[in-house]
Amino acid sequence: MSVDNLRLREQQLVGLQFGDDIRFEYRAVRAGPLNYASHHDFALADVANFEAGCRAQDEGFDAVCIDTMSDSGVAALRSVLDIPVFGPGKASMLMALTLGDRFSILAMASRWKPLYKKALDELGLHHKCASVRAIEVPPDNQGLLSGKEDDVFPLLEAAARQAIESDGAEVIILGSTTMHQSHAYLAARLPVPVINPGPLSYKLAEAAMALKLRHSRVGYPRPMHPRLDMLRTMFDAAEAAGRLGQGAAPGQAPRR
Question: Which of these three, 148, 180, 197, is where a domain ends?
């Protein structure tokens, strides 16, 4: 990712308030999939995000947020880190159920649907998902929605209204952190809460730090034989081979 690509991700912080002792550092993964549209991509993204954040605690960070609704790498990172690790995917679905009884997910393309199915399978929440509505616009993991607002925002609004009026959604979830630029537009026009996944994960990380909460070591046991050096070697080779997968989503880590 270029500096400009990362700045578009950093815009998720706009309008959010944090304590004076909290600052954020955004990082791109070193190698990964160009998009998150198949299980091939999910596997690569898990490894990519794991590698990007596996040494965060040693580097002095107090929490890690993964910037993709696939929650790629979250479980693996929790197995090696004692600091809070959050992904926006499952967190958004669970938060939606504190705001309403059923939710719908807005997606750029139907090819993302396996990503949501995976999370819904693991949470056992298919009965709470009213629908996944896709506008069938090719996603852009680097440029996001910049320059496409006039075309994309009305399509997202129309899909959201269908989800509310036809599917029975009481809460809307943006289906990707790459869609964050549409949040203010939709929140001002829709009659139900609209969850912006990335900022939600930041606030959950902040709350976990303040409350001194960590993931369960019973649920996420440490590896018996860590191979982080092997992981680094693998990614050194990937970078040397041409920086594969420049479009993969970055991880972010709030630091106190």
Answer: 197
